[in-house]
Amino acid sequence: MIWTSGWRLASAVSNAGGLGIIGSGSMYPEVLKEHIQKCKAATHSSFGVNVPLLYPDIDKLMKVIVDEEVKIVFSSAGNPSTWTKFLKEKGLKVAHVVSSVKFAKKAEDAGVDAVVAEGFEAGGHNGREETTTMVLIPMVRDAVKIPILAAGGIATGRAMLAAEALGADGVQVGSRFAASEESSLHQNFKNLITQTDEGGTMLTLKQLTPVRMIKNKFFHQVQEAEMRGASKKELAELLGKRRSKTGMFEGNLDEGELEIGQVAAAIREIKPAAKILEELWNEYVEVKRKIVFD
Amino acid sequence: MIWTSGWRLASAVSNAGGLGIIGSGSMYPEVLKEHIQKCKAATHSSFGVNVPLLYPDIDKLMKVIVDEEVKIVFSSAGNPSTWTKFLKEKGLKVAHVVSSVKFAKKAEDAGVDAVVAEGFEAGGHNGREETTTMVLIPMVRDAVKIPILAAGGIATGRAMLAAEALGADGVQVGSRFAASEESSLHQNFKNLITQTDEGGTMLTLKQLTPVRMIKNKFFHQVQEAEMRGASKKELAELLGKRRSKTGMFEGNLDEGELEIGQVAAAIREIKPAAKILEELWNEYVEVKRKIVFD
Predict the structure, then answer these.
(1) Quick one: closest CA in B to A133, which residue?
(2) Which residue among A139, A161, A226 sits closest to B198, beta carbon to beta carbon?
(3) What is this structure's pTM?
(4) Are residue B148 and residue B42 in the same domain, yes or no?
């Protein structure tokens, strides 16, 4: 949720009964500090911080998180054994994002409290196995004892209930909240999400780290390069350093990297986060009742 | 289900309370006739025939189906408006396989009785949009009024219930029955399915028609050709005419095209079809009860 989930979105979700998460991957340590402080001022409920473990200044991020007495960390993109013990000793709860059974087991072994099992349909960085949420969750359920949060493709109450049926204890909702009023994405990109059709996103950059993004001009440049066998070096140069900021935060829909899940095709309206949560919950309850009593 | 579902598997599934389907895509018309006749002799229950509409001798296949008084056709890989009216006039029920909302609507407009909405995780031929079952089913549910059968990633009772939550009226189960005792796949391939790990299948041949298959030697040849920008002609020549027969029916695990779903990673045992159906149903009922009462 880089460039997407700052204090506004996180506190809105927490105030509405969810667990809001600040995405720190696009923040300098001092920026994260400011977001945490503003989030604490805006909600009395719990919230968490997502930390990509490959973040260059990870020590500084972790110091901010502990100093600011954040209670929950969602770690991703890295080895959970590096930081889990430290965070647990400080009294935090840790969930780690995985895209395979293999890494779910490793996360459990590293002592995390829960795993977020994220399918191929999710936006942004993704696993090389391309395992979908439908296939991934029952396998992770059989493999680990700790709670599982399902992610990838979940933007409706129907999908929440499906995740529960598959064996998840909860869900992580990304794309749906990306198109919320409180998300910090550029308005151009929010509007584009609501116009994205099926097949409008694709997993690409597979020679580097696979990322799901909108099929815009930049995407097609990447595809063209990959199809003619471009080297990793050339691809890394094409990607550059601030593609996601250019697209997601600054709203350049041609040149930017626009990370969003496949489920964008089902998102037609930008809404307040509280309204999204209410609709998700109401549909979940309604479909559950229907399945039981019809 | 080419090279997979002949009269033995179809009748076993129908006898166990499911709707068995004969896959005609790999059969000459006279071979299909024999399978239908043997299936009728082996079960008093209904069964269907799957027909890829791009089959070269489609007229002859359809004549066999009507002459043999088959009651249900599952059509795929082609335009449903070509044959639906003919089949409906003969009193048959028609379901059409789609991988997108767009084609689900077209199938409904063509007058089919149901759509099979098949996600990216499914084995064999697949859609270009790469939409997963989790994302596809709720969108199709909102778009059409006719019944929906969910397909792709469904090999457990958990996934059956998830499909129901997503809005499906039923499920189509492929890969799980491919690894049944009654399937006509070569024993080598059945054994390989039970050893396939996560990431062991991949959607490839995207320049031609996307197909999900096991990552064997042939797969890597295709990938290598695609990565150096091989022409469609070269890819078609590499594929050749009998790759799937070589692998799936004759058991050549290096040179053959081995079509199977991503969910192979969750299939560890070859079982009788009746046992598979019983386990699917029992798990479905058990998980449903648990979700309601826990």
Answers:
(1) B134
(2) A139
(3) 0.97
(4) yes
